[in-house]
């Protein structure tokens, strides 16, 4: 949704061209509905067996409602249709703000440290106008706000903050793999962009570190994850 919204805002017609402007944003609203509509339908249909009284307020008849008592999270379903999933995460998975900050979770924080360090390095570089330290990658005089890559990096930043504050920290690598720049940035670090295109690419100092981490993560993960260790 963030990518769609950012793109539509940047290419929107001027309000002075009223017919084109209205048509453009009506199509945008339909795109948004297409993106989030199925998820909303899924949440609503999932809560039907658990919140009969809530649905009856809208005139819907639920078979067996007289024998079913609403769950504790049902009162929060409107407007938060994802209240059931939020309750499950909080009640059974211990997901919540700073809940994972326990001494016993230190190994999991160490497991997530490399990918978080790589992410922070990339985000800092992007918003300062650099991909690799000392090498300017954005056009001179043009800030990051004007680039087409910004939605991807904002999405990445949001997930990193979410990983630090809320989620189970050991799933950070899997979570951040939803961000394309997570793959672009290591690729830029691995090879020296100053080398001529036809010349053999030489690994940089950063590249050796990144490549070693990826190889180690792959080999150890292939052994530990099937053995039910928290390696994701």
From TrEMBL:
<dbReference type="GO" id="GO:0000009">
    <property type="term" value="F:alpha-1,6-mannosyltransferase activity"/>
</dbReference>
<keyword id="KW-0812">Transmembrane</keyword>
<dbReference type="GO" id="GO:0006506">
    <property type="term" value="P:GPI anchor biosynthetic process"/>
</dbReference>
<feature type="transmembrane region" description="Helical">
    <location>
        <begin position="152"/>
        <end position="171"/>
    </location>
</feature>
<dbReference type="Pfam" id="PF04188">
    <property type="entry name" value="Mannosyl_trans2"/>
</dbReference>
<comment type="similarity">
    <text>Belongs to the PIGV family.</text>
</comment>
<keyword id="KW-0256">Endoplasmic reticulum</keyword>
<feature type="transmembrane region" description="Helical">
    <location>
        <begin position="24"/>
        <end position="44"/>
    </location>
</feature>
<dbReference type="InterPro" id="IPR007315">
    <property type="entry name" value="PIG-V/Gpi18"/>
</dbReference>
<keyword id="KW-0337">GPI-anchor biosynthesis</keyword>
<dbReference type="GO" id="GO:0031501">
    <property type="term" value="C:mannosyltransferase complex"/>
</dbReference>
<protein>
    <recommendedName>
        <fullName>GPI mannosyltransferase 2</fullName>
        <ecNumber>2.4.1.-</ecNumber>
    </recommendedName>
</protein>
<keyword id="KW-0472">Membrane</keyword>
<keyword id="KW-0328">Glycosyltransferase</keyword>
<dbReference type="GO" id="GO:0004376">
    <property type="term" value="F:GPI mannosyltransferase activity"/>
</dbReference>
<comment type="function">
    <text>Mannosyltransferase involved in glycosylphosphatidylinositol-anchor biosynthesis.</text>
</comment>
<feature type="transmembrane region" description="Helical">
    <location>
        <begin position="206"/>
        <end position="229"/>
    </location>
</feature>
<dbReference type="GO" id="GO:0005789">
    <property type="term" value="C:endoplasmic reticulum membrane"/>
</dbReference>
<keyword id="KW-0808">Transferase</keyword>
<comment type="pathway">
    <text>Glycolipid biosynthesis; glycosylphosphatidylinositol-anchor biosynthesis.</text>
</comment>
<keyword id="KW-1133">Transmembrane helix</keyword>
